[in-house]
């Protein structure tokens, strides 16, 4: 598949062939329909945040499930999904007490002795934010996506993954405005 590969600070991303590993039991393959350019992606491009390279950036996306691992029950091929920055394990103390954003994410990533999710001619290509959506396909943990209605345009649904969530979190968690409130700003 084609992916936009980031190889160094302020170097333009290059469209290259990158290989996806086969999905593990709890992993899924998603065909990317849309991917936003978040300012965080730009920060990595500009070198303000470090990241190992080569890497495929992109973390605000939507697409259609193509393939699922043997233990995946949440989604099936054909489902429309948005990607989620905060992949969670689903069974640690944080996850089971309603705080999956604090999860240590054990078991949601590949171990060092496993094949990397992304590679190029046998060399590791790093996965950004457990997603890497500047690519034709994503290989992610099943808890890194959220299903959306099929009548929602995917180019708009993609923005929920980071931009919308960041704003909604500020309103509901920081300003503590309850859902349904009427506000001025
Ligand atoms: Zn973002
Ligand atoms: Zn957890």
TrEMBL record:
It comes from the Bacteria. Residues 24-149 form the Alcohol dehydrogenase-like N-terminal domain. GO terms for biological process: formaldehyde catabolic process. Signal peptide: none annotated. PROSITE patterns: ADH_ZINC. SUPFAM superfamilies: GroES-like (SSF50129). Keywords: Metal-binding, NAD, Oxidoreductase, Zinc. GO terms for molecular function: S-(hydroxymethyl)glutathione dehydrogenase [NAD(P)+] activity; zinc ion binding. One of its GO terms (cellular component) is cytosol. Pfam families: ADH_N. InterPro entries: ADH-like_N, ADH_Zn_CS, GroES-like_sf. This is Alcohol dehydrogenase-like N-terminal domain-containing protein. It comes from Candidatus Entotheonella gemina.
């Amino acid at each position: 598949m084609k992916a936009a590969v980031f190889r160094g600070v302020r170097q333009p991303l290059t469209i290259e062939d990158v290989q996806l590993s086969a999905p593990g039991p709890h992993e899924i393959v998603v065909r990317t329909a849309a991917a936003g350019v978040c300012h965080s992606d730009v920060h990595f491009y500009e070198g303000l945040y470090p990241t190992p390279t080569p890497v495929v950036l992109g973390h605000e996306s939507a697409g259609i499930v193509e393939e699922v691992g043997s233990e995946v029950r949440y989604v099936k091929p054909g489902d429309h999904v948005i990607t989620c920055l905060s992949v969670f394990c689903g069974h640690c103390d944080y996850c089971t007490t309603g705080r999956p954003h604090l999860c240590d994410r054990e078991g949601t990533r590949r171990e060092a002795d496993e094949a990397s999710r992304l590679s190029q001619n046998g060399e590791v290509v790093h996965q950004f934010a457990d997603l890497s959506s500047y690519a034709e396909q994503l290989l992610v943990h099943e808890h890194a996506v959220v299903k959306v209605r099929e009548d929602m345009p995917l180019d708009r649904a993609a923005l929920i993954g980071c931009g919308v969530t960041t704003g909604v979190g500020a309103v509901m968690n920081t300003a503590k405005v309850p859902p349904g409130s009427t506000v001025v700003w």
